[in-house]
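Q: Entry one of two.
A:
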Amino acid sequence: MLLRSLPRLARPYAARELSVWALLAVPTGVLSGGVTGVLVQTVFGTGAPTWVVAVAVALMTGAGSIANMGSLFWAQWGLGRGKVEALAQLQTGLAAVLLAAALAPVGIGGLAAFVIAILAAQILWTGIVTIRASIWRLNYDRSSRFVFAADNQAIVSTLQAATAALTGWLVQAHIDWFRWLLAAASVLVVLSLLRARTLRLRREWRLLAIERRQKENERFRIGRYLSIVREDALFRRYMGCMMLQGSGNLMFTAPLILAMTREIGMSTFSQILVTTVLPTLVVPFSSRYWARILAGVHVISFRRLNSRWFTGAIALTIVGALTGLEPVLWLSALLYGVATGGGMLGWNLGHNDFAPEARAADYLGLNISLTGLRGLLAPLVGVWLYGLLEAVSPGLGPWSLFLPLTLTLAGSISFARFDRDIRKAGNQPADERGVGGSST
């Protein structure tokens, strides 16, 4: 049913691939920042200094983005490699570190082991996402890619939300039961690996030939990626807007978890409900809406609309955090999920509206790596400000959420101005069929 809107030739590829990502939905559901951040606060924080727990929460909420800094490495590592075999190698590593996370003991040593294991899992997931981008580009044209991404997101998000809810229930029922879920997630990764080996890619031989020539003629150099920033003015501005908005989005979850635990006193299940379950449940319903918009406009115009939803959701989150009203936090989580449905599509596919075909992996790598930079810094700044305000006066910590709101609002305004300037100039960046990025 989901695949009927795809061209007939693309459906066999899509049907096999959907099963691969569906099996990986449980592992990625456990790895989501809201879940691991709450686990650190609830399970592994016992006996550890408060500031250590706060830093660990920040690292967990930003882990997925921090790991993105390795995308440039994965893009280079994947050059000339068969994409199915590369995917299988990464899945093997992911299964191993999930099992290691399940065995981490309670206490400060276990806290360190758990944080390292989750960061390693997210680094490997970044490699999988990088390889996945090549698979999607091979098997689907631009229009089909948006449709397939929305279908995939609908299935994966539903399973991720169910996994997050189950994790919250297990931890609330018995503090160690989440370990069985992590072990099961490791097994599902192995099953996904076996399914991935059956994937067939269209015209992969041509892509591999291009990549092997590229790898022979040009070793990895950071300058190759910096040249994109230097030469493509439109993509440079796009990355600047993303840095503002993305920093706000990545900053607010860590201090929110601290506020829900310390000021509001919410249960573990309720915290995971707000940070992960409700936003993730909404994604399948909103992704189709966003996919139709993104298929018809350039990603700059798309981000102009999408960023407003992020700003409104974080503003409502502040109201809920300051008043302690859980229903307000539930509503803000739902709005954030609507925004995320579009944000994920734009993040996975938006670089194609700037990149020439030969440099698509470079553009994606740069985009993902900059996400990693803000994923490292933004949550740490958020918990630092939370702690600073608490030191000034206990109970002031939730007011730290105004900083991520300010950043997200600034990003929204920047996207609106960017779109207006592009329309006024009558200039559009090169799309995936072009031969080079635009510069102005």
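Q: Entry two of two.
A:
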Amino acid sequence: MGERTLRYAVVGAGGHGGVHIRQIQQHGGRLGCELSAVAIRPQDRKPGQVKAFRDAGVEVFPDAVAMFDALAGRADAVFIPTSIYSHCTLTCAALGRGHNVYLEKPPAGTVQEIDRMLAAVADSGRICCLGFQAISSESIRWLKSRLADGSLGSVRRLRTWACWPRPDAYYARNEWAGHLKVGDAWVLDGPTNNALAHEIANMLYLATPAERTFATPRTVRAELYHARDIPSEDTSAVRIVTTDGVEAVFVASHCTAGAQTGPWIEMECSRATVHWRNDGRTAIDYDDGREETLDRDGEDSAAAALANFTQAVRADDAEALDCDLTMGRNFTLALNGAFESAGATRAIPGEYVSHTDEAPGPHPVIAGINDLIERCGREGKLYSEVGCAWATATEPFDLSGYAGFPQRFGA
């Protein structure tokens, strides 16, 4: 007799909820899982949507907690791709009712929320996967294997940069986009803690040869800016130094000109230099003259992450996860350190900002930002370190013993 089909439930049917639903529907047959339930708030429902789900045998609930209660003992896992500030509450609620959880990135706004979720994981004995799906990609795992077997030598420095324009509509899609807080809850939305959070996670993952580990940040120095009239950042430069002395630099903006480019990662090791692109194309140039290349990722990374999660749930083995919440703590630790170092998000003066109606839609553009990002990325420097007129230098923030955000930010 074959293995039974695992039953998955998803919170939300739009945005990333819709992405997870489509992934389960597309790959569930070969993976042995199926969509069994969704939670859609009445105000979010589209005409005919509830009937379509029910006709397909999918239960529909009015909110997440009602679904968690009703499915206790009946669902094999729940997917939580909701607002950043709701992650902690919903994850703890799901774990408390005995559910395995697939939590979308970023894990939370603050490290103290991560610690509450980790305590809930320990108390429940359940599995909590973290949706940094690039960790399941062929290219990132290939590089990690080269680190683990010593081929690359020790990691010295990583750099990643990206020009990712986002239209005004991106910031109007929900109540928390571009915000530092919603009510009393921290969000810290921006390229660092949302759209390009994957790249900071990738760098922390590749900064150590240890399996299933993100390197621990020791200090963070960051400059966080906004060209839009928003509380949080849309343009950032971050330098992380790990407890092993590895430097990781991230430079990006949502206020760039032209098409989306990047992210790229360049990685300097004692025996090789690595060049990685977002589509998985990877080149390793060894110091002895050898070269290794990977044309691109094979399986889509989101599908690979779903497959890995399904395998771990079926085996009831948290150690089988490619990326879990424990790993994610070091990401949020670094993210909190970035905001503490910056002290505040700073407005870029209007004289340096214009507006365009070009793709991907109306959005502000910072003068010269594309070239500035590439220079900073390639040189591993922050904006103030290359003489940028609107940039303000900051100081590194020491994360030793850090357990709660904020300490310096906004003071």
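A: Comment on entry two: Residues 134-297+325-398 form a domain with the Dihydrodipicolinate Reductase; domain 2 fold (CATH 3.30.360.10). The mean pLDDT is 97.
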